[in-house]
Amino acid sequence: MSDKSAKAPQKPAKPGRSAKAAKKDQPGTGAGTATAPARPGRLAVFKTYKLYVGGKFPRSESGRVYEVTDSEDQWLANAPRASRKDARDAVVAARKAFGGWAGKTAYNRGQILYRVAEMLEGRREQFTEEVAAAEGLSRAAAAEVVDAAVDRWVWYAGWTDKVAQIVGGGNPVAGPFFNLSSPEPTGVVTVLAPQESSLLGLVSVLAPVIATGNTAVLVASEKAPLPALSLAEVLATSDLPGGVVNILSGRTEELAGPLAAHQDVNALDLTGAEDPQLAKALEVAAADNLKRVLRPGTDGDWHADPGTHRLTAFLETKTVWHPTGSLGASGSAY
Amino acid sequence: MATTPPSTAAGRAAFADATASDATLRRFLHGLPGVDAVGLEARAAALGTRSIKTTAKAYALDLAISMIDLTTLEGADTAGKVRALGTKAVHPDPTDPETPKVAAVCVYPDMVATAKQAVGGSGVKVASVATAFPAGRAALEVKLADVRDAVAAGADEIDMVIDRGAFLSGRYLKVYEEIAAVKQASGAARLKVIFETGELSTYDNIRRASWLGMIAGADFIKTSTGKVAVNATPANTLLMLQAVRDFRTQTGVQVGVKPAGGIRTAKDAVKFLVLVNETAGGDWLDNHWFRFGASSLLNDLLMQRQKLSTGRYSGPDYVTVD
Fewer CB within 10 A of the terminal residue: chain B, N end or C end? Predict the structure, then answer.
């Protein structure tokens, strides 16, 4: 993978490569970029993959792109190679969206997440192709992954208004008080998406973060960013307010550093930091403003029951002491 | 650098013919060359593409901080808020004593005494809007009383608004005389004249207003009140910078410029500084001659400054909430 200037972001300018891409572009392997002409003589329409920041689809501020290849090193598309300034813009967008998103009712957030599942379902074909190309899966196996990803959105959509019952509630205290704890979102969460699982893993780390009211800056898999960049199109059409999810593609290491040190990021999910050295350095940088850090280690099987640990990882607990007056003979004032 | 106050006889004498009557003043102002709107906007946009990095950026950020008129002009202003603003003006970033002070705090006349007390002997000036700000719709006597009140309370600078109704209906002499009267009432305080460029409709009008203000004795010409939809833009500020440059060439009198309203990011502020340097020249790169009327801009400058010194992106949790 080499860097290309933005002046020629579209690969087909190189005849040799384009021919190769077209040849291997049988149904099920095309990844939605180098779509072969359906009819002879029709020009191919290539897709420009872009970042997703603040509800818009900008190119990288730096103008850089990098080549994305499939599992057999065949060129698929050029993806934007985001810079630290794109990361900064994404944090600003996420911060701006936080109040509105956290302030929505949990029920409404659930509806919106379910809507994401609906939109994703409608694009099954496209995602099946992209996942098959990105992960080297057969078409049937890729379709299963997409189904699981849709189901994962539905699973987390259902959780939005149930988390409070799991981790919140009344606390018994020795005094005339109602003592109530309720979970609140942590804030802006930087998520390093899993490197290997380009869609199911991605959804499994992203959905729980926003389900509880956080906003996310997501760094897509470095090797297989195309499903993430296409997921942005799904999110943009699902009533999800702009800025709640921001998706960056590029070098994980280059983007993760500034994000881990950013003073306006509240938490960090290190799932995609595969190199232990890098993960450690990011944890150190994150400690500066006491970010919550999730370092799951090898988070292997994305098909398994996800549990609730990712939902509860990025929550703060607010506890309210409400005076009830003196206790009656029964020992209870209420 | 010419520092003669433009109100002196020498400054205005050259224009005695022009200001003799409404007709001559009209002839003079309409005789100014027309503005090439497309060229002006293209020039302003081109100068906005300069990349200012590292040491130049550090210099620009500090300079921009030192040029801010930290402003609060709300109906809900309280003495407490003005005191907080004064403290922030003197110590913009309490975590870094190297941070320069801002140029001034800008408040309504009834808050001048409070602001004066808050900035103490720090050297930060107190500016006051006056003359029935922001509409300017009051009798001249009322406006002058407003100015005298602010000056008596200790204001170092007066920000007046022109009568846009009179200007737009072509009664230039009325505007001229009003500015001259306010200048006289201001005494030693420096006078900033606000044109409210968003209401003047055309670039030609902004050029005419700039010259009218300078002839009448303005120490500063200022774009806007910050209370209308269109405030300071790079193009209208560039136009006013050309006016002060030409005015100095012609008369030897230097006049300052203050864009106000709508400048919120450090990046925007640096673009304005490029405009100043490339249009009026380095003589204006000083808070005696160039100011930013702003409030939220300061926080962004401070965050950028923190980024430069620590290498980490800062956030709104590390600056004060205004």
Answer: N
| 3-class secondary structure, A188 | strand
Handedness of CA A159, A162, A164, A169 (dihedral sign): negative
Within-domain flag for B22: yes
Cα gap B51→B39, rounded to integer Å = 21
> What is the CA A209 to chain-centroid distance, rounded?
8
CB A117 within 8 A of CB A123: no
For residue B92, count other CB atoms closer than 10 A to its CB. 23
Q: Which residues of B touch A88 (CB under 8 A)?
A: 313
Six-digit token pair at B301?
């400058």
d(CA B301, CA B311): 15
The alpha carbon of residue B229 is apart from the nearest alpha carbon of chain A, in Å, by 22
Q: What is the ipTM of this complex?
A: 0.82
Which three-class secondary structure state does DSSP give residue B192?
Answer: strand
Ordered by where they begin, the domains of chain A are 84-323 (3.40.605.10)
Residues ≥6 apart with Cβ < 8 Å to B56: none
Does any domain span residue B319? no
Give Dmax (Cα) for chain B.
61
Q: Give the pTM.
A: 0.86
Helix, strand and coil in chain B, % to nearest 5: 50, 10, 40
Number of folded domains in chain B? 1
| A75-80 vs A65-69, strand pairing mode | antiparallel
> In which domain, by residue range, is B282 found?
14-310
B125 is known as an active-site residue: no
Domain membership flag for residue B304: yes
What distance in Å separates the CA atoms of residue B220 and residue B190, rounded to the nearest whole number?
8
SS3 of chain A: helix, strand, coil, percent, to 5? 40, 15, 40
Question: Catalytic pick from B88, B183, B222, B271?
Answer: B222
**How far apart (Å, rounded) are the C-alpha atoms in residues B312 and A283?**
15
**Where is B313: in which H helix or E strand?**
none
pLDDT tens digits, chain A, 334 residues: what are they? 444 444 444 444 444 444 444 434 444 333 445 555 567 889 988 899 999 999 999 999 999 999 999 989 999 999 999 999 999 999 999 999 999 999 999 999 999 999 999 999 999 999 999 999 999 999 999 999 999 999 999 999 999 999 999 999 999 998 888 999 999 999 999 999 999 999 999 999 999 999 999 999 999 999 999 999 999 999 999 999 999 999 999 999 999 999 999 999 999 999 999 999 999 999 999 999 999 999 986 557 899 999 999 999 999 999 999 988 766 666 655 5
The answer to whether position B8 is within a domain reads no
Verify whether the Cβ–Cβ distance B313 to A258 is below 8 Å: yes
Q: CATH no. for residue B143?
A: 3.20.20.70
Partners of residue B312 in chain A, C-beta under 8 Å: 258, 261-263, 288
B258, B268, B271, B300: the catalytic one is: B258
**N-terminal to C-terminal alpha carbon distance within chain B:** 37
Does A95 contact B317 at a Cβ distance shorter than 8 Å? Answer: no
